[in-house]
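Hi support team,

I submitted a single chain yesterday and got back a structure, but I'm not sure I'm reading the token output correctly. Could someone confirm the output below corresponds to the sequence I sent? I've pasted both exactly as they appear in my results page.

Thanks,
R.
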Amino acid sequence: MNTLPLFHTGFEIIESPDLKHGRKNADFGQGFYLSPNKEFCRRWARTQKGRRTFLNSYELDLHDLNVREFARDEEWFDYIFSNRSFQPDQIIADVIIGPIANDTIYDTWGIITSGLLKKEIAFPLLCLGKSYIQAVIKTEKAKAALHFKGAEELSEEDVLAYQKTLKEEEQHFQEQFAALLEKLTAAKN
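Hi R., thanks for writing in. Yes, this is the structure output for that exact sequence:
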């Protein structure tokens, strides 16, 4: 695979992303976050009075890029928690691709990242549910390889329908989360 289609939703058409705009303590550190999953990006869309919502489409030329891919494993978990605690980024890559931590997608009441849970409990909780993938453009070299393909405006009705789907998914996830948390904490006692 030499190219990767990617998508990003927001209130602007973004032909040239700002790599410094994203949060430093996000899953994979600072950079421009996208997903190869178009339907997931649609569910991530929001509305805001007086603003339009866009699904931006890109194609990333992977040739000559240093790409680091993660799976839902302990290395992924450690990297996420290192970034969330503002530790210096230990991974040198133009692009990082891997699962989105479920507490970024769903409300987990701050339990996973509270520091109250030991890793052996927090890790399975963070791995619970469907895995959605994100790609983070980390360097100017990767930004130059990201080609804007166009933007589709999403209607408010469409965004609300996608949000309803995500809310239903979140309800199911939270039921699984509560059951697993109870099971894991009971096993520790």
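A quick pointer for reading it: Helices lie at 38-44, 74-84, 102-105, 119-126, 140-144, 156-188. Let us know if anything else looks off.

Best,
Support desk
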